[in-house]
Each structure stands twice: as C-alpha cells, then as structure tokens.
Design a protein that fits this description.
The protein is of the alpha/beta class. The protein is 47% helix and 15% strand. The chain is built from 8 helices and 7 strands, in the order E-H-E-H-H-H-E-H-E-H-E-E-H-E-H. The strands form 2 sheets. Strands 2-3-1-4-7 form a 5-stranded parallel beta sheet, with helices on both faces. Strands 5-6 form a two-stranded antiparallel ribbon. Helix 4 runs parallel beside helix 5. It is globular and about 45 Å long. The structure holds BIS(adenosine)-5'-pentaphosphate and zinc ion (ZN). Zinc ion (ZN) binds next to helix 1.
Length: 214
C-alpha cells in the first residue's frame, strides 16, 4: 500500500504511523523526523532547514522533495510506504505524483486526520519524544512507564523546540494555508478517507484499519 497521512500538528500522524507500518509491513517516511535528524547532525540540509522549522514555517519544497525522492529508493520502501508529513503543499503533491508515475505507481489512500484546532495545544505542549526512534509520549494521554524515559530503550525523552504554544500558531497557520489545499487535491482524485482524529488513539487505529481493509 502507498499511503499519505495528512493532519495538523498534534493530530496523531506520528502516533498511528508505527502501528500501521508494522501491520502492513510498510516503510515509514516522516519528513519532520528526517529534518530534525539533519538539524541535530548539522548536515548541509539541516543547516538550511533549521530556521524555518524553529519558526514553525515550512521548509522549501525543493529540500523536502529531495529527501523523499532519496528515501523512497530504499529497498524497504518498494513494497509500500506511509508518508507522514509529506506532501504539505500542492507543489509537493504534484512532484510526488510525477515521481510515482515514472515507476507506474500511484498513491492508494490519503488518511485525513480531521480535528478541531482547539484540542491541539494540549497535545503539543504535553508531548515528549524519544529522538532516535521517533516514539512519542504525552504526559497526560500516553505517559511513559517511567517519567522522562523511553519505555523500550530506557533513554531520556526530550521536548521538541517547536512544541510551544507560540510556534504552534505558525504551524497551524501553515497547515491551513498551505496544506489544506493538498486535501482538496486528493479529494478530487477520490482517495481521501476522513478520520475522527479527536478520538482516543485506539479508536483512531480502529478507524484506520477499517479504511485500509475496505
Ligand atoms: P512534523 O514533524 O511533520 O510536525 P507536524 O506536522 O507539526 O506534526 P506533529 O509531529 O507535531 O504531529 P503528529 O500528528 O505526528 O502528532 P503525534 O502523533 O506526535 O514537521 C515539523 C516541521 O518540519 C514543520 O513545521 C516544517 O518546518 C518541517 N517540515 C516537515 N515536513 C515538511 C514538508 N513536507 N514540507 C515542508 N516542511 C516540512 O501526537 C502529538 C501528541 O498527542 C503526542 O504526545 C501523542 O502522544 C498525543 N496523541 C496522539 N494521538 C492522540 C489521541 N488520539 N488522543 C490523545 N492524545 C494523542
Ligand atoms: Zn509527527
């Protein structure tokens, strides 16, 4: 399967991705995770992306299209993939279609994590992540077994620099202006499935499974 997960910051894309990935043996490509790794490693890509990310603005289309193009060549992505956080502009969606067309492929489904903005601040400000695996926790909704520590590795959890109420405002602004048109782009192709992303994580997983088995 070739899937796209679209939704505002904190809508649950990163929470559902590992579950779908394991159930369907897909590769999980999250542009946000890849960019954060590049920033931490101070690669040329990371140096170019850092400022926009800290302000909650989008990184340029060319940079993210480049990393997706590269990542999709991995053997583990040949069977199918989950794109989490990409495409985020109509230009990125068009570029993705072109990349897939060259191989005679297309996107199968777009999962739209529909949710009201008002719920997102609490989710974002309470999030803690394990940077190397991308696993995320929440102080209230998904606490780790031991506070501040990853369940699997025992390594420390950190908060993302852009997970503040102020930066969230810019991220939401970018979502409404630049990413919502992407949902329309795929709606016209008839491949969008709308999820009730405000429900508890397990209920969202059930909705995802229903969509993917239909
Ligand atoms: P990115 O990393 O993609 O961030 P985002 O889109 O803002 O999304 P989040 O990761 O914040 O949300 P999520 O939906 O994954 O939420 P999660 O499941 O963790 O992008 C970061 C930046 O990189 C961008 O601002 C941009 O600068 C750049 N970038 C990335 N891709 C780009 C692109 N294609 N083009 C240009 N620039 C790009 O959940 C959040 C919290 O809520 C967690 O604590 C979780 O435990 C909890 N939670 C999850 N689900 C539920 C639930 N159902 N109920 C209760 N709590 C829940
Ligand atoms: Zn995420």
């Amino acid at each position: 399967k070739r899937l796209i997960l679209i939704g505002p910051p904190g809508s649950g894309k990163g929470t559902q991705s590992p579950i779908i990935k394991d159930e369907y043996c897909l590769c999980h490509l999250a542009t946000g995770d890849m960019l954060r790794a590049a920033v931490a490693a101070k690669t040329p890509l990371g140096i170019k992306a850092k400022e926009a990310m800290e302000k909650g603005e989008l990184v340029s289309d060319d940079l993210v299209v480049g990393i997706i193009d590269e990542a999709m060549k991995k053997p583990s992505c040949q069977k199918g993939f989950i794109l989490d956080g990409f495409p985020r502009t109509v230009v990125q969606a068009q570029k993705l279609d072109q990349m897939l067309e060259k191989q005679g492929l297309k996107v199968d489904k777009v999962l739209n994590f529909a949710i009201d903005d008002s719920i997102l601040e609490e989710r974002i400000t309470g999030r803690w992540i394990h940077p190397s695996s991308g696993r995320s926790y929440h102080t209230k909704f998904a606490p780790p077994k031991v506070s501040g520590v990853d369940d699997v590795t025992g390594e420390p959890l950190i908060q993302r620099k852009d997970d503040t109420a102020a930066v969230l405002k810019s991220r939401l602004d970018a979502f409404h202006k630049q990413t919502e048109p992407v949902i329309d782009y795929y709606t016209k192709k008839g491949i969008v499935a709308n999820l009730h992303a405000e429900k508890p994580p397990k209920e969202v997983t059930v909705e995802v499974e229903k969509v993917l088995s239909s």
